[in-house]
């Protein structure tokens, strides 16, 4: 009887000792599971550095100065190589018409001056090589004077156009150098905007200009 009582006491003691240990282990396991379950995976994001823009305030002046020295040189400085043929084509066309009109003006001018001096050997007096029956020239003095006025007017116009194209070449290099340094980023956006109108139950269309600082 005493043995049975001792065995019961020993069994009760083992249960008492084992129960806190097992409860503590279960609690630790549950805590570990909760930490694993609630812990979010760490996401490492790459650091994106904003693009730096180097602004040279003298760049537009340099481009304009180079184009003033030699047309097209400012465009080369701005790395707009495709504009160089356009610059030379435009200025070359203006120079071609200026030189052509100037040569024609001097032709009629020299013939007119020789007529005034009493000569009849200019190139417009007998163009086809056949002398007129009345001895009159093929191109009269009045026609020579009108031809001079005509070619002088277009000679001056061609010169003005050429100078304008030369100035435009300088302005283009200057403005292009300004625009080349302009910072275009997502901080400044222009996009279409559609807003429902509560009064007319319609739709309002427009543009949205956003600045982000």
Automatic annotation (TrEMBL):
Signal peptide annotation: 1-23
Alphabetized UniProt keyword annotations: Membrane, Signal, Transmembrane, Transmembrane helix
Protein name per its UniProtKB record: DUF5683 domain-containing protein
Transmembrane domains' residue ranges: 81-99
Source organism of the structure: Sinomicrobium pectinilyticum
Domain DUF5683 as annotated: residue spans: 57-213
């Amino acid at each position: 009887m005493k043995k049975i009582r001792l065995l019961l006491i020993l069994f009760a003691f083992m249960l008492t000792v084992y129960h806190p240990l097992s409860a503590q282990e279960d609690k630790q396991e549950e805590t570990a599971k909760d930490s694993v379950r609630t812990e979010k995976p760490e996401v490492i994001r790459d650091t994106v550095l904003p693009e730096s823009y180097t602004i040279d305030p003298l760049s537009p002046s340099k481009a304009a100065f180079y184009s003033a020295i030699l047309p097209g040189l400012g465009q080369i400085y701005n790395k707009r190589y495709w504009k160089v043929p356009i610059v030379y084509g435009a200025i070359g066309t203006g120079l071609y018409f200026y030189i052509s009109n100037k040569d024609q003006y001097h032709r009629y001018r020299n013939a007119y001056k020789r007529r005034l001096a009493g000569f009849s050997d200019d190139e417009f007096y007998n163009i086809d090589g056949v002398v007129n029956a009345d001895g009159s020239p093929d191109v009269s003095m009045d026609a020579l004077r009108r031809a001079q006025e005509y070619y002088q007017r277009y000679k001056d116009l061609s010169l003005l156009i050429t100078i304008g194209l030369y100035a435009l070449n300088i302005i283009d290099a200057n403005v292009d150098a300004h625009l080349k340094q302009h910072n275009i980023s997502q901080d400044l956006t222009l996009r279409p905007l559609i807003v429902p109108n509560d009064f007319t139950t319609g739709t309002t269309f427009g543009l949205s200009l956003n600045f982000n600082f």
